[in-house]
Amino acid sequence: MGAPAGLSPKKAKKKIEGGSNVFSMFEQTQIQEFKEAFTIMDQNRDGFIDKADLRDTFAALGRLNVKNEELEDMVKEAPGPINFTVFLTMFGEKLKGTDPEETILNAFKIFDPEGKGRIKADYIKEMLMTQADRFSQEEINQMFAAFPPDVSGNLDYKNLCYVITHGEEKD
């Protein structure tokens, strides 16, 4: 992706950023990761993510029976067609409200008075389904699918917090 003809790379970058400051919200490596994700989701490679792309992405992830209304709702979250800048802006807005890792860890530590870094999966399930903003069974299933408890039935919440705030598992 070189600079448009006749523009120095610096001026081209300014032009791309335009009136939207979304690119300054992220590190260059993060923007690259979002670009890769966008490219994976833009299944038909037309530069936009639409309902068909979302359906194909879900199918690639093994979820075949996505309701049309669900796809409509996702697409409606955008102010218009979802090109890369809109995609990045949507993630920026979602991530703005994300608590820092320490805040999330402190919330889990309430359930881990001995500070082991793990909580019994059954216990956290009960808490999430009966307290405050109650989780549905489906939300619990999704959480445990993404973060399965270990063989002893414990949830590694330190890893969970890391993934929530950084987006990938530590090695």
TrEMBL record:
Using the record for this protein, list the coiled-coil segments as residue ranges, or answer none. none
What Pfam families is this protein classified in? EF-hand_6
All copies of the EF-hand domain together span 29-64, 99-134
Q: Which UniProt keywords apply?
A: Calcium, Metal-binding, Repeat
Calcium among keywords: yes
List the molecular function annotations (GO) for this entry.
calcium ion binding
InterPro entries this protein is in?
A: EF-hand-dom_pair, EF_Hand_1_Ca_BS, EF_hand_dom, Myosin_RLC
Record bears the keyword RNA-binding: no
Query: What subunit structure does UniProt give?
Result: Myosin is a hexamer of 2 heavy chains and 4 light chains.
Q: Which PANTHER family match?
A: MYOSIN REGULATORY LIGHT CHAIN 2
Q: What is this protein called?
A: Myosin light chain 10
Give the organism the record lists. Answer: Ficedula albicollis
Gene coding for it = MYL10
